Structure formats: C-alpha cells, structure tokens
Amino acid sequence: MMGPLEAYLPYLLNRAGARLAAAFQAEVRPLGASLQIWRVLAALRERDRRRMGDLALTTAIEVSTLTRLVDTMERRGLVARRRAERGDGRTIIVRTTPEGRRLTARLVPVARRYETVALAGFAPADAEQLKDALRRLYANLDALPANGDAAASTRKEKRP
User: Fold this and answer.
1) CATH, range 36-145
2) pLDDT tens digits, residue range 15-54?
3) Higher pLDDT pick, 104 / 85
4) Contact, 45 vs 94, CB < 8 A?
5) pLDDT of 111-133, one tens digit each?
6) What is the rounded CA–CA span in Å between residue 154 and residue 159?
7) Vertex 35, ends 34 and 38: CA angle to 5°?
8) With left for phi above 0 and alpha for psi between -120 and 50, is residue 135 left, alpha or beta?
9) Contact in structure between 58 and 134 (CB atoms under 8 Å)
C-alpha cells in the first residue's frame, strides 16, 4: 500500500503545479495570454530563435500541441517562424516579434509574483535547494519510458 496521499510525491507535485497553473492562467487570460503561451514566450525570452523540437522539450508541450499553439501565436503576431538557413531544411526556427516581447514584459512580473508567493516562508538558501532538488528529480525521470510507453506495456501485460 502507498500510504497517505499527502505523503506521495507525485500527488504533492501535481497538486502544487495544478494550483499554480490554474491561478496563473486565470490572471493572464485578460492580458491575452495562457500558461502555454507564457511557457513559449519565457523560453524564447531566455534564448530567442529556437527550433521547434527544442521549444517542445523546454516548455514540456507535446510537439503537435506546440505546433498548433505556435500557429495561433503567429496569427496573433507574437512569434514568427522560418526555415533554418543551414542544415536540414525541414527545421523550423521560432523567434519572438516586438508584440511578443511586449506581452512577455507584461507577463514576467506576474510570473515573478507567483514564484514569490510559492516560496513565501522559504529562506533564500532553502528556495535554491528546493529548485536544485526539483531539477535533479526531473533529470531522474529520464529513466522512465517516454510517451506513455510504460502505460501501454502495463496494459498489454494485464490482458488475458
């Protein structure tokens, strides 16, 4: 038996993430954004001109979902796409536009405030330790099968 739900790490991570995501989504919607738009803009703010695959990994948005999202963002003038000049001509590079940078500038203070609220009561060293632990935890998850392969294999094993 697993024990109390409150002691189960995936439950705690999901609960905290879901609460932050729902509140953030509600707050940025009137600004013309969403949590997924913020993820893309934040990734491009960190390093503009990214390949779609890199953007998918960085934002944790599935490639087909990201493609539709970038389509929408491009129609709204937040990003622009072009084919890579070198290498594989199929590679698409995404960059922010001036309008995308303006929206990002409005969203950054909101995101910073959410981090401040989430880390209230943590000493700066404890906050950094938590972030380091979460980065290590995320890296550990590379040992898991990708794309739901574990769920598929579990379903196959349970069939009579």
Assistant:
1) 1.10.10.10
2) 999 999 999 999 999 999 999 999 999 999 999 999 999 9
3) 104
4) no
5) 999 999 999 999 999 999 999 99
6) 9
7) 85
8) alpha
9) no
Query: Domain limits of the chain?
Result: 36-145
- Comparing CA positions, the residue from 81, 79, 100 lying closest to residue 91 is 81
With a CB cutoff of 8 Å and minimum separation 6, the contacts of 4 are none
Tokens of 16: 């905290």
Residue 34's nearest CA partner among 129, 120, 119, 111 is 111
Size of the chain, expressed as the number of residues it contains: 160
The whole-model pTM stands at 0.83
Task: Give 94's strand partners.
Answer: 50, 81
